[in-house]
């Protein structure tokens, strides 16, 4: 429980920085910053795939809020979610797995996330999909922070940060308790070494928004209770708290369900491919 509180508190600077960016973008929507972000969108999946693989939950949570605000594309969001590793890599390193294997796992995650992100952007561009992002004004209306009353960007960003933080703490706390009572022992009884079924089950488990899932996946893999393909499926779908923040901040349920389905389907597919790569 101490570790859970520590990890949750570490989200605060990421969330606050994200909402400062959103407030600044809103304030300068017609200026140079807005034009730069518009030009940089096509390169977003590259940055997203690299940033997500860093072992922490903050980037995926920040990416979800940035997507809701229209700053990044769905391809960039998918790249971050799919490359997010949470505690997977640190646990594998602590178990003294060969460093070439760990580098290979990270490289496969980055490559898979990048390809998926670029493909998503290309597909939505081909079908001429248009989305209306959630404006900061809408966030303010929901939070009752009264940004329009000349309070600058720092106070409204703090209000939005605390709102999301409380939501995350409540939901994650409930999941943490469930993992404490039914965690790794329950996962150990699943068919995670069975081809295809293992990837399908592990991919679903990876969607649980809690860092303990990635720890359990790493431990089960090291014990031989989970195949490499299943472990990679859980690693690809394990986007930390990103999906939780996405469903909270983005009001378009269809978009959120599309992202959820895309993360799961891509994670399982890449896990099946990874079964033959390790």
What is the helix tally?
A: 16
* Mean pLDDT across residues: 77
Strand-pairing-aware structural class? mainly alpha
Q: Summarize the main sheet.
A: none
Assess the beta-strand content as a share of residues: under 5%
Measured as a percent range, the helix fraction is: over 70%
The N- and C-terminal alpha carbons lie at a distance of: 34 Å
Radius of gyration: 19 Å
* Poorly predicted segments: 29-38
- Anisotropy-based shape: globular
H/E topology pattern: HHHHHHHHHHHHHHHH
Oligomer state of the chains in this structure: single chain
Overall domain count: 1
DSSP summary, beta strand count: 0
Describe the protein's topology.
Blueprint: H1 2-9, H2 11-27, H3 32-40, H4 44-52, H5 58-68, H6 74-83, H7 88-94, H8 99-126, H9 136-143, H10 154-182, H11 184-188, H12 197-206, H13 211-223, H14 228-237, H15 242-249, H16 253-275
Fold and architecture overview:
The protein has helices spanning 2-9, 11-27, 32-40, 44-52, 58-68, 74-83, 88-94, 99-126, 136-143, 154-182, 184-188, 197-206, 211-223, 228-237, 242-249, 253-275. By secondary structure, it is mainly alpha-helical. Residues 29-38 have low confidence and may be disordered.
């Amino acid at each position: 429980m101490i570790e859970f509180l520590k990890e949750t508190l570490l989200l605060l600077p990421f969330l606050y920085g994200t909402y400062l960016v959103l407030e600044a973008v809103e304030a300068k929507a017609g200026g140079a910053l807005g034009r730069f972000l518009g030009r940089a969108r096509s390169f977003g999946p590259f940055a997203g795939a690299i940033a997500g693989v860093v072992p922490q939950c903050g980037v995926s949570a920040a990416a979800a809020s940035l997507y809701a605000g229209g700053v990044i594309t769905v391809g960039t969001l998918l790249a971050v979610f799919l490359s997010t590793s949470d505690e997977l890599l640190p646990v594998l390193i602590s178990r003294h797995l060969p460093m070439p294997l760990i580098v290979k796992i990270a490289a496969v995650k980055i490559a898979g996330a990048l390809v998926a992100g670029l493909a998503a952007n290309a597909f939505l561009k081909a079908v001429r999909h248009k989305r209306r992002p959630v404006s900061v004004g809408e966030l303010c209306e929901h939070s009752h922070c009264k940004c329009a009353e000349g309070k600058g960007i720092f106070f409204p960003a703090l209000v939005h940060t605390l709102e999301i933080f409380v939501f995350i703490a409540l939901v994650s706390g409930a999941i943490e308790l469930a993992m404490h009572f039914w965690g790794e022992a329950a996962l150990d009884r699943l068919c995670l070494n069975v081809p295809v079924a293992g990837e399908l089950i592990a991919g679903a488990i990876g969607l649980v928004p809690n860092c303990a899932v990635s720890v359990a996946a790493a431990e089960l893999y090291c014990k031989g209770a989970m195949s490499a393909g299943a472990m990679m499926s859980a690693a690809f779908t394990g986007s930390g708290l990103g999906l939780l923040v996405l469903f909270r901040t983005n009001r378009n349920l269809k978009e959120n369900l599309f992202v959820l389905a895309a993360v799961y389907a891509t994670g399982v597919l890449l896990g099946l491919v990874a079964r033959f790569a390790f």
